[in-house]
Amino acid sequence: MRSIISNQNLYFHSSQSFSDRLFQFSAKAWFMVVVIGQLIFAYYIIRLYGASGLQGNLEQWNAQTTHGYVPHDLAGNVIFGAHILFAAIITIGGPIQLLPKIRAIAPRFHRINGRVYIVSAFLIGIAGLYLAWIREAAGGLTGSIFISINGLIIFICAVYTIRFAVQRKLATHQQWAIRLFLAMSGVWFFRVFLMLWLVIHQAPVGFDPETFTGPFLNFLYIFVYILPQVFAQIYFKAKSANLPRFHFAASFSLIVLTMGILVGIFAATIGMWLPVL
């Protein structure tokens, strides 16, 4: 009887160890793919918007963005330029902020980069709200509403990230920093999963490409702006749980998600970003 119990315990611990390793691997793979994709996106932002801005060729801003540059709208153009600048900052600084080795080796840099990231979060959120409601976001009223929801999530996550850092509750602070990273990546996720959808269907199924409205886009807004916060909570629960089945399920979901993101990044790079550079 003792032998049977011992063997069962050994199997459980072995299974748990494998599930832990698989869970850690899937999380790291997801993060690595996202970082690579965001660095490509940052390069695209700097090359298209930064270079054309420095050259004074502001009309080039409209190559991939509706109402990027509007003649005789100085305030709107400045806000759009600032929005793009902060987008480049957060796209590069965000992944760096989440790297444990950076926190351990260069804590001072981590704190400075964190402050820059938080300030950028508030400013890009405010600029996004202005552009959505004053210049009208792609997707009309529905697009503006969901961009506003994303902005609200960014503000909430930023406040709690600061709060728990000041209170030195570092574990909780790190969780809110991850939530903030996901919220700040919403626009990037939107582009990636939109391109994944187009690759799968080889056509704009479920939405009108002219008006940029439709049921699929409504679902996509929810998927990239709201559901990542739910996914984050599931990830935190899975990370703290000692249930191999929970880890296996979370790992499988992360792997499927990572593969989809990888295809979307490739499609966005080849079909959306590189052609205009």
What's the structural blueprint in terms of helices and strands?
Elements: H1 2-54, H2 74-97, H3 100-105, H4 107-133, H5 140-166, H6 170-184, H7 186-201, H8 215-225, H9 227-240, H10 244-273
Helix pairs in contact: 1-2, 1-10, 2-4, 4-5, 5-6, 5-8, 6-9, 7-8, 7-10
Summarize it.
Mean pLDDT is 89; it is low at 1-8.
- The average pLDDT is 89
Report Rg.
21 Å
Please estimate the helix content: over 70%
Major sheet size, sense and barrel closure: none
Give the class from helix and strand content and strand pairing: mainly alpha
The end-to-end span amounts to 70 Å
Order of helices and strands: HHHHHHHHHH
Strand residue content: under 5%
Q: What is the overall number of helices?
A: 10
Which parts are unreliable, with pLDDT below 50 for 5 consecutive residues or more? Answer: 1-8
How many DSSP E strands? 0
Task: Please give a structural write-up.
This protein is mostly helical and 277 residues long. It is built from 10 helices and no strands. The protein has helices at 2-54, 74-97, 100-105, 107-133, 140-166, 170-184, 186-201, 215-225, 227-240, 244-273. Helix 5 runs parallel beside helix 8 and helix 7 (186-201) crosses helix 10. The longest helix is centred in the N-terminal third of the chain and has 53 residues, at 2-54.
